[in-house]
């Protein structure tokens, strides 16, 4: 998203999702959190799989959910259909808060919201016939009479492109695509309004993928279904979804109209993700944006913007405006190297060795300095900070060195969660401090930054 477009739309902070629900809205999610409790050796902190997301899904639409493995997509999908209990926040379904339902109320509501899994095999009992598998939800809800249930199963087989004689066969007698059709039939048995499709085509051959996606599209038209489509294949979501939500470390970084998001991504994380898609045209002028470092642990996410530790476009404090892009990039790399080392050093063995003086955290500092800054000119003002970092590292290890670097080179990106800003006239939102009016936009040279 260009800064020009931001200023046209004002890049204003988005109203809280859920505040403006109307007849069009089927699902309104507000500040939803799903944490998993742990009793790990390293930390007892919960895994913050979904960490405060707000969005809406309109009736009849397909919202795509993308992001790296482990960012919380499945957990979010499972929470929406209440296979997971939210830790906090609200999910309204057709105007009713379903986040706190339990017992019979929850069971009754669950008919409305179903899930199709990536791997139909693991979600099916191979000893049951296809008819029995599809009938399971009807039996569990004691839907009408047994005769009507059998008729419903035949209707569902037909709906998903299978034949009624398949009723008495077993799942292993079917191909992957056919097994996914069985999974879809079972999910639709109770006539839900909303279906989470969790990577429904990832386990299938490319030729079969298209057929399943077409089937899902036809079913949506015929039955008026609303979908959340979780996928890591961005070409699948581009084709199939009205809007896309881009997730990173339990947060939604950008959400909005599919085409606009693909052609003009507003968030640095979306840009990074899209830049990794191979283009059919090798001469196309698109630069791959490398993703530095490894994803932070959802048990210990960064305190500011979730993407801050890997973002190639962090806000630069005014004090360092005059540094070249290259040098700023090296400072960023320097912080990444120490962060990665901090993770490696966080073992009992290292902690013990350090306590008894057998491990000097600054022993290889010269090597790090040389490989990070060796081929660039480092002005005195930066050199003294690097020297001080070495002292802090020797005295207090990586945490002390990182805290110092954050203090000297950090910005709001390190300390404050960015608000969701509206970035275009379709209502797309993006979480990034660069959308603030008092901060230089992503495509603006830093020297154009207004006074703060
Ligand atoms: N039952 C659980 N208990 C503890 N942690 C869990 C549990 N399920 C998931 N997690 C953790 O929660 C985080 C989010 O996982 P989730 O499966 O939702 O991500 P994802 O984006 O769907 O990943 P993938 O694309 O690989 O399926 C991960 O760190 C994962 O290890």
UniProtKB/TrEMBL annotation:
The keyword Transport applies. CDD domains: ABC_NikE_OppD_transporters. Keywords: ATP-binding, Nucleotide-binding, Transport. GO terms for biological process: peptide transport; transmembrane transport. Belongs to the ABC transporter superfamily. Residues 9-20 have a biased composition (Low complexity). Residues 293-304 have a biased composition (Pro residues). The keyword Transcription regulation does not apply. Residues 1-23, 276-309, 426-452 are annotated as: Disordered. Residues 27-274 form the ABC transporter domain. Pfam families: ABC_tran (PF00005), oligo_HPY (PF08352). SUPFAM superfamilies: P-loop containing nucleoside triphosphate hydrolases. GO terms for molecular function: ATP binding; ATP hydrolysis activity. InterPro entries: AAA+_ATPase (IPR003593), ABC_transp_ATP-bind (IPR050319), ABC_transporter-like_ATP-bd (IPR003439), ABC_transporter-like_CS (IPR017871), Oligopep_ABC_C (IPR013563), P-loop_NTPase (IPR027417). This is Peptide ABC transporter ATP-binding protein.
């Amino acid at each position: 998203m260009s800064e020009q477009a931001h200023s046209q739309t004002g890049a204003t902070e988005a109203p809280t999702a859920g505040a403006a629900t109307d007849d069009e809205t089927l699902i309104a999610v507000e500040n939803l959190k799903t944490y998993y409790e742990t009793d790990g050796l390293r930390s007892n902190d919960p895994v913050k799989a979904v960490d405060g997301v707000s969005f809406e899904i309109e009736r009849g639409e397909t919202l795509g959910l993308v992001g790296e493995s482990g960012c919380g997509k499945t957990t979010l999908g499972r929470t929406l259909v209440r296979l997971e209990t939210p830790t906090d926040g609200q999910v309204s379904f057709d105007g009713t808060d379903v986040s706190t339902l339990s017992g019979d109320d929850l069971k009754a509501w669950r008919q409305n919201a179903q899930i199709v899994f990536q791997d139909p095999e693991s979600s099916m009992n191979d000893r049951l016939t296809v008819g029995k598998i599809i009938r399971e939800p009807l039996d569990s809800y004691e839907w009408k009479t047994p005769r009507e249930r059998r008729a419903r199963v035949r209707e569902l087989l037909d709906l998903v492109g299978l034949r009624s004689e398949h009723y008495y066969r077993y799942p292993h007698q079917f191909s992957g695509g056919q097994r996914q059709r069985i999974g879809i039939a079972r999910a639709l048995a109770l006539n839900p309004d909303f279906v989470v499709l969790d990577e429904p085509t990832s386990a299938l051959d490319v030729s079969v993928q298209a057929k399943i996606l077409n089937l899902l599209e036809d079913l949506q038209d015929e039955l008026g279904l609303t979908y959340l489509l979780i996928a890591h294949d961005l070409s699948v979501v581009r084709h199939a979804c009205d809007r896309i939500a881009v997730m990173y470390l339990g947060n939604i970084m950008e959400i909005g109209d599919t085409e606009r998001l693909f052609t003009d991504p507003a968030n640095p994380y979306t840009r990074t993700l899209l830049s990794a898609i191979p283009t059919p045209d090798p001469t196309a002028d698109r630069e791959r944006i490398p993703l530095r470092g490894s994803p932070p642990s959802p048990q210990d996410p960064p305190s500011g913007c979730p993407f801050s530790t890997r973002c190639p476009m962090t806000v630069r404090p005014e004090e360092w405006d005059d540094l070249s892009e290259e040098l700023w990039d090296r400072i960023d790399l320097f912080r990444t190297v120490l962060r990665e080392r901090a993770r490696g050093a966080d073992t009992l063995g290292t902690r013990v060795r350090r306590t008894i003086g057998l491990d000097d955290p600054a022993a290889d500092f010269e090597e790090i300095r040389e490989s990070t800054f060796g081929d660039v000119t480092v002005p005195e003002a930066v050199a003294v900070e690097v020297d001080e970092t070495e002292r802090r590292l020797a005295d207090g290890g990586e945490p002390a060195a990182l805290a110092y670097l954050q203090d000297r080179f950090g910005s709001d990106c390190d300390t404050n969660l960015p608000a969701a800003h509206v970035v275009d006239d379709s209502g797309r939102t993006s979480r990034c401090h660069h959308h603030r009016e008092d901060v230089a936009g992503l495509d603006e040279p830093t020297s154009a930054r207004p006074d703060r």
